[in-house]
Write a structure and sequence with these properties.
3-stranded mixed sheet; mainly alpha; Rhopdopsin 7-helix transmembrane proteins; 12 helices; 313 residues
Length: 313
C-alpha cells in the first residue's frame, strides 16, 4: 500500500497493438465495424423483445439484461482502443484506468451470475413446465437480475480499491489494449501477491459456484429431455435452451483460454489476443446466436419488419 514516502503516477500509457504499427489503421476499421455490430445487434434484440408482447417472458427478460451487459462491456473498452489505433491517444488517467478495470471485472461477474440465472430459468421451463410462471413470476425474475447486477458490481469493489492504493512509481506502460488486472498489477513497485491471490480466489469461487449451478441445471434438463419418448418432443425441448447453452460454452470457453492456461504459456502479447476473444467475440455473437437459434425471435423480427414497411407505405 502507499505510504507518505512513496509516490504515484497520474496516468498510464496503454501500448495497445504498437508492436504491429502497419496494421493500426486496418485494425481500427475492423474494430470500428465490430463495435458497430455489437451495438446494433444488441439494440435490435432489446427492441424486438420490447415491442413483442409474446416475448415478455422470463427468458427474454434475462436476455435484455444480457444485451445491456454486452453493450456496456464493449463500450467500456472499444472506444478507447479506437482512439489509440486512430489518434494515437494512448494515455489514460489513473482514475480512468481503475474505473475501466472495475467496470470490466463487474460486468464479467454480472454476466457469470446472469448466465446461471438463465440456466435455472431453462431448468424450471423444461423440468417443471406446468409450474413455470408460478416458480418464475416477474418479481422472481427481477430479484434474480437485481442479484446478478448487485453481486457483480459488489464483488470486485475490494479488488479495485486495493489496486488503486498500490504504488506504481514511474512504471506506467500498460502492455495491453486496456487496463487489465494482471497488466496493472505487474506495474506495481511493491509485492502484489496478496492482491493477486485475493483476486484469483474470489474470482475462482464466483466462477465455480455459478458454473456449478449452470452445470447442475443442465444435468437435470438433459435427464428430463431423455425421458421424453418422442424424438420430436426431445428436439423441441432441447431447442428452447440451445441458444443459452451455446452462449455459455462461448463465454466459459473464452475465460478458460484467458485465465486457465498453464502459467508457462502466459505472456503480455498472447494475453492481448486471448482477451480479444472475451471482449469482442462474446458480445458480438450472443445476440446473433439468440436471433439465429430462436424461432420466436426470428418470427418477431419478421413481424416487426412487416409492420415497419407497412407504416412506411
Amino acid at each position: 500500500m502507499k505510504s507518505d514516502g512513496e509516490f504515484n503516477i497520474s496516468e498510464f500509457i496503454i501500448q495497445g497493438f504498437s508492436d504491429i504499427p502497419k496494421l493500426q489503421l486496418p485494425m481500427f476499421g475492423i474494430f470500428l465495424f465490430i463495435y458497430f455490430l455489437i451495438i446494433c445487434w444488441n439494440l435490435i434484440i432489446i427492441v424486438i423483445i420490447w415491442r413483442t408482447p409474446l416475448l415478455h417472458t422470463p427468458m427474454y427478460f434475462f436476455l435484455v439484461h444480457l444485451s445491456f451487459i454486452d453493450i456496456a462491456s464493449a463500450s467500456n473498452i472499444l472506444p478507447k482502443l479506437l482512439l489509440i489505433l486512430y489518434a494515437k491517444q494512448k494515455t489514460i488517467s489513473f482514475v480512468g484506468c481503475i474505473t475501466q478495470l472495475y467496470i470490466f471485472m463487474s460486468l464479467s461477474c454480472t454476466e457469470i451470475i446472469l448466465l446461471a440465472a438463465m440456466a435455472y430459468d431453462r431448468y424450471v421451463a423444461i423440468c417443471h413446465p406446468l409450474h413455470y410462471f408460478t416458480l418464475m413470476p416477474s418479481k422472481q425474475c427481477a430479484r434474480l437480475s437485481f442479484m446478478s447486477w448487485f453481486i457483480g458490481f459488489l464483488d470486485p469493489t475490494g479488488h479495485a480499491v486495493l489496486i488503486s492504493k498500490l504504488s506504481f512509481c514511474s512504471n506506467k506502460f500498460v502492455k495491453h489494449f486496456f487496463c487489465d488486472t494482471i497488466s496493472i498489477l505487474n506495474l506495481a513497485c511493491i509485492d502484489t501477491y496478496m492482491v493477486a491471490l485475493l483476486n484469483y480466489v474470489e474470482g475462482t469461487l464466483l466462477g465455480i459456484t455459478a458454473f456449478s449451478l449452470t452445470l447442475i441445471s443442465y444435468v437435470f434438463i438433459i435427464s428430463n429431455i431423455l425421458k421424453i419418448k418422442s424424438t420430436e418432443g426431445q428436439r423441441k425441448a432441447f431447442s428452447t435452451c440451445t441458444a443459452h447453452l451455446t452462449c455459455v460454452c462461448i463465454f466459459y470457453g473464452t475465460l478458460i483460454c484467458l485465465y486457465m492456461r498453464p502459467s508457462s504459456s502466459f505472456s503480455p502479447k498472447q494475453d492481448k489476443y486471448f482477451s480479444l476473444l472475451n471482449i469482442v467475440l462474446v458480445p458480438m455473437f450472443n445476440p446473433i446466436i439468440y436471433s439465429l437459434k430462436n424461432e420466436e425471435v426470428k418470427k418477431a423480427l419478421v413481424s416487426l419488419k412487416k409492420k415497419y414497411f407497412k407504416s412506411c407505405r
